[in-house]
Structures are given as C-alpha cells and as structure tokens.
Amino acid sequence: MDHPERSTNTSRGLGRRPALLLLFAVVGGLSLVLTLSVPSTAFSPTPTARISAKPTSTTTAQNLGPPPPQFPPAPTKPVVYLTFDDGPDPTSTPVLLDMLASYDIAATFFILGHNTVNFPDVAVRTVTDGHAVANHTYHHRRMTPSGSVAQLQKTQDAIESTTGVLPTCYRPPYGATSDGVRAAGSQLGLTEWLWDLDTRDWDEKVANEQIVAALNQTESFSYSHGLEGPIILMHDAGPEGLRTVDALRVWLDTNHTRFDFRILEGC
Ligand SMILES: [Zn+2]
Questions:
Q1: CATH of domain 79-261
Q2: For residues 180 and 148, is the Cβ–Cβ distance under 8 A?
Q3: How many Å lie between the centroid of ligand 1 and the Cα of residue 254?
Q4: What does the pLDDT look like over 215-265, one tens digit per residue?
Q5: Cα angle, residue 213 at apex, residues 210 and 217 outer, rounded to 5°
C-alpha cells in the first residue's frame, strides 16, 4: 500500500515546484528588465571621473583615459633692454630707481667713475635694487686706443670699491668705438654694448612728447646684435635727467605690462 500521506505530500510537493519556478522566472525576468532599463553609463566611469582619478603610476594614468586638455602656451612678450648712461646722479637717479621699482623693471646703468665716487649711496642702491652697473669710463671723455685700458680700469676700480660689483660690460662715451677701444675692453674681459634706439633725451631741444614718441617705436625697432630685442638709450644725469624720468613714466604707464624688460646679456 502506498503511503497516501507521503503520496499526497509528494503530490503537494510536486504541485508547488512549477509555481516556485514560475515565481523565480518572473522575479528573474523583472530583475533582467530593470537591469536593462537602467542607463549603462551609471555603471561605467565617466570621462571626468577617469581624468580626476589619481593615478598610481604613469602607466595607470595613460590607461585611465585621454590625456588632460592641452592649453596653448602663453604669448611671449617682446623683449626690451632699458639702459641709462652718465649717472649716478643724486637728483635724477633715486627718482628713476623708485619708478623702476614700482613697475618691477630691471635695467642696465652705464655709470661714470667720478659720479660713482661722488655719490656712492646712489651707486650702491642701483646695485641693491637689482640693476646691473656697467663701465662708462671715469670722466666721460672720448676714448682713445692708447688710453682706453687705463680709463676703463680706473672706472672698474671705482665701481668695485664702491659697490662691491666688478662690471663685466662697458659703453664708450658717445658710442665712439674702434678696434683699439674694443681691444682694450677685451683685455679687461668687458663686453661692449652700444644701443639701437636713441631717445635723444640728451638734447635739450627735444620735447618730452618726442621722447615718448621715440619709446613708442620700441616694439617695431630693428636690431642686429643677436639679443632678443632693441637696446634703448636714455640718460639719468645732468640737467635733463628728471625730464627723462618724466617721459619714461608716461610711456611705462601704458606699456609696462607689454614688454619683457631685461638686463643686457652678460652685464
Ligand atoms: Zn654718456
């Protein structure tokens, strides 16, 4: 005899299996539908997440996604070399140094030996303000081949003993150079620098507006000495020294951010 209860139980058990399988199938199907209906992007890192992820090595960074965007390099400013001759002057030079400091501009000062000795504080401040001091002879006399070495050496000694800096560059007065002058400069290890743009600030008949107009030619002025921009000639001594400072201030007020102001190479 069969066991009816077992049989019944069996039959009940057998009877529940299709229902359970159906339930599993429905739940499983529903999960599948839900899974498929969710946007796939939610399960993969976005490009932003890939870039911001901190790489553990260069290789990992390369594998994480595309490289960061490349920005164009900052535009390069035109280079210019401001030079001031014949100082240091007790009146003009401190005013000029104040102005250059306010614009964070460095320049090259071709100074005279006798002015350096007479106004040592101004010479020292020129150096401590970050400018270059260079040799412009002792008395501003026209250099002669036979006397050039002595003129330059006496000025080297005056500048070094006053400021602690031994110049490495020189500019002959009036730009009057020659093979003999250059040989003297070379003998003392000095580089000669003349200029490109003469502002003519030394001429009392030239008005302030004309000096500013000359400075306005800076960006387009030609040069051929191998530097990266023109050398500007100005003067910070004598009766016209303060006028130069005034004209330069007018020009710098609108142009100080447009240029890369540098000290002459090697000075
Ligand atoms: Zn001079």
A1: 3.20.20.370
A2: yes
A3: 28
A4: 999 988 988 888 999 999 999 997 788 999 999 999 999 999 999 999 999
A5: 140
